[in-house]
Q: What sequence folds into this?
């Protein structure tokens, strides 16, 4: 089943929607009746998010290393400069939209003009 | 009482989200049209954005479609991306108790980062219906998101656009979430665990196959070293307080 086939896309829409809805509903399903959540679940739940997001950042960079060999692309100059823009702006201005748009613009300019 | 002020306040509260969702959604829509190779991108933009309402997912989808990722991977990665949503409900259980099941279902379904933040802030006018406020906010934000993604998909399909590098928006989104989380010391500790586990797995398995082993390694580390990490992050005494609704 190729990714662009209608069956794949329908299945993808369904799976992502159902899994996301279940995640959102989980606390209501488990603890809606007033039961206290078990300590292990709570403590893992509280800490999983930063770990998972860090993993996704690593994944993005692993993809850049694969697709744009650092040796041929000024050792990731575009990726590093754009990431620094995002992190710096976010720490400074705390405006997610601004950070994302500015970082993406920096990246697009760099990979289209400076480090193709 | 007249609930008009509630609707008005919900609209005013949602304005920052209008800016954010239309812009982010637009980028995700352009990416879907330009990079995934689907026919009818606007249709799929509509279906995926309307049913999932999840920014990070909307970006990741493009990659999954392009590489025909198996559904098991899709499901596991969706859990990874959106596990944070399952924490939000904990603080809303009491607020949503006893309301009409359909209203409750919609409020749960539409619980995004931004909608959650506004619902917790709860700027409902005195004497106003707090559930009506939440429903209006959720509905508006839902519409903004769909409109942004669909508009982006139309634009991406219609315009020849120098889009090389636009996929960095996803990396940027993750970096923003991580940067905000890392303002807290405890989150820095756990982010470091995720970072270490996934770098190891990236080196061993490569970008293609790293995510599932990383998740397994990360979860094992979080469970096995739980006590030590809690002590290091300084969270062990406060944990119980976060349970209270």
A:
């Amino acid at each position: 089943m190729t990714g662009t086939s209608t069956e794949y896309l329908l299945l993808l829409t369904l799976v992502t929607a159902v899994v996301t809805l279940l995640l959102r509903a989980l606390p209501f399903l488990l603890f809606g009746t007033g039961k206290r959540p078990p300590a292990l679940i709570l403590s893992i739940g509280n800490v999983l998010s930063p770990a998972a997001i860090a993993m996704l950042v690593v994944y993005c960079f692993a993809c850049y290393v694969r697709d744009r060999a650092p040796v041929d692309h000024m050792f990731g100059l575009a990726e590093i400069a754009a990431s620094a823009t995002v992190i710096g702006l976010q720490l400074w201005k705390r405006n997610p939209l601004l950070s994302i748009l500015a970082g993406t613009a920096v990246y697009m300019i760099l990979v289209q003009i400076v480090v193709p | 009482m007249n609930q008009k002020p509630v609707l008005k306040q919900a609209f005013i509260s949602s304005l920052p989200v209008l800016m954010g969702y239309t812009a982010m959604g637009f980028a995700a829509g352009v990416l879907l049209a330009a990079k995934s190779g689907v026919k009818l991108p606007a249709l799929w933009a509509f279906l995926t954005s309307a049913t999932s309402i999840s920014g990070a997912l909307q970006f990741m989808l493009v990659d999954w479609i392009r590489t025909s990722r198996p559904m098991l991977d899709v499901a596991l990665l969706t859990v990874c991306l959106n596990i944070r949503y399952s924490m939000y409900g904990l603080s809303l259980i009491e607020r949503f108790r006893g309301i009409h099941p359909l209203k409750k279902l919609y409020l749960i379904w539409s619980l995004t980062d931004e909608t959650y933040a506004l619902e917790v802030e709860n700027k409902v006018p005195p004497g106003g219906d707090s559930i009506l406020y939440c429903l209006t906010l959720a509905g508006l934000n839902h519409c903004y998101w769909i409109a942004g993604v669909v508009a982006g998909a139309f634009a991406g399909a219609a315009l020849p656009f120098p889009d090389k590098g636009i996929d960095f928006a996803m990396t940027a989104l993750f970096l923003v979430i991580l940067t905000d989380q890392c303002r807290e010391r405890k989150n820095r500790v756990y982010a470091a665990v995720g970072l270490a586990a996934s770098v190891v797995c990236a080196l061993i398995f490569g970008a293609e196959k790293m995510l599932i082993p990383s998740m397994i390694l990360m979860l094992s580390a979080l469970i096995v070293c739980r006590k030590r990490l809690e002590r290091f992050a300084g969270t062990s005494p406060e944990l119980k307080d976060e349970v209270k609704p």
